[in-house]
Amino acid sequence: MDSVFQALASAPRRKILAYLSAKDMTAGGIAPRFDMSKPSISKHLRILESAGLIKRERKGQFIKHSLIREDLAKTLNRFVQEVCPVGRPLGNESHILVRKG
C-alpha cells in the first residue's frame, strides 16, 4: 500500500494516471503533455508500474501503458477501511450476504 501512496504523491504521476484513465498510451504519446525529458517520463512510468497501478504491453515496436483500475480501487478501499474501521464490519457483512446468494 505504501508504494501506491508514494506513487500518488507526485503530481506528474497523478496526471499520467488521469491520461491513462481515458486511453492506453505510449511514453512518446505522454511526453509532449509535460515539460520534462522523456527519461523522466519513463522513470515516472516505472514507478507507477512498480506500484501496480499501470501495466505495459508491447504492440509491435511500441509499448502501450494502461491503467490497472482494479488494483487502484482495491488499494484505496483497503486504506479507507483502515481509516474508517466502522466500514470493515459492514463490508464483511456484505461479502457474506453475497456468498449466501
From TrEMBL:
<keyword id="KW-0238">DNA-binding</keyword>
<dbReference type="Pfam" id="PF01022">
    <property type="entry name" value="HTH_5"/>
</dbReference>
<dbReference type="InterPro" id="IPR011991">
    <property type="entry name" value="ArsR-like_HTH"/>
</dbReference>
<keyword id="KW-0805">Transcription regulation</keyword>
<dbReference type="InterPro" id="IPR036388">
    <property type="entry name" value="WH-like_DNA-bd_sf"/>
</dbReference>
<dbReference type="InterPro" id="IPR001845">
    <property type="entry name" value="HTH_ArsR_DNA-bd_dom"/>
</dbReference>
<dbReference type="GO" id="GO:0003700">
    <property type="term" value="F:DNA-binding transcription factor activity"/>
</dbReference>
<keyword id="KW-0804">Transcription</keyword>
<feature type="domain" description="HTH arsR-type">
    <location>
        <begin position="1"/>
        <end position="87"/>
    </location>
</feature>
<dbReference type="InterPro" id="IPR051081">
    <property type="entry name" value="HTH_MetalResp_TranReg"/>
</dbReference>
<dbReference type="GO" id="GO:0003677">
    <property type="term" value="F:DNA binding"/>
</dbReference>
<dbReference type="InterPro" id="IPR036390">
    <property type="entry name" value="WH_DNA-bd_sf"/>
</dbReference>
<protein>
    <submittedName>
        <fullName>SdpR_2 protein</fullName>
    </submittedName>
</protein>
